[in-house]
Amino acid sequence: MKLKRLMMAIACAFVMSIAISATAYAKTGTYVYDEQNLLTDSEFEELENQAAQYAEKYDLGVYVLTTDTMGDNADTGSGRREFAKGAYEQRDLGLTDDKNGFMLVIASTQRKYVTYGHIPDTSRNPFNEDSMDEISSDVKSRLKNDEWYEGIKVFYDDVGTYLDYFAENGEPWSEGDFWALPSRW
Q: pTM for this structure?
């Protein structure tokens, strides 16, 4: 009788561990690395598809990484950038021989985020301080309320706006060009 109860307990524990692991897996695609499982499956697929379109159209990988922490130096901008750079290189991200890419990293437990860009040919860089400030402001306004999907979605939308502007004008958007971005109204 004791053996039967023990076997039943082990079987229940095994089934529960499978059920828990099936719901807590990290979603990893080509462009979206949701290690914290902050996105639903449909949100993940939508963002992954949007990033794939940018890659095809602009030869620029646009990535998102969700993680629990960016380490001990996350309180400094340079510490967050170093973490992002390491994550970018560790995953061998980027397109073309230059490994062109732009990434948003969200550390949900620490409540920190950072953007990181790797575009060695500055003449092909669609981002500048003005566009980075706009992206950061839009992302922060969503993330501060734990609106994970909305923060990532606005990141992708903003990046697309600046990529389109650069493709049409041959230079990055700047604050004085605000009215040239109708999708920002």
A: 0.79
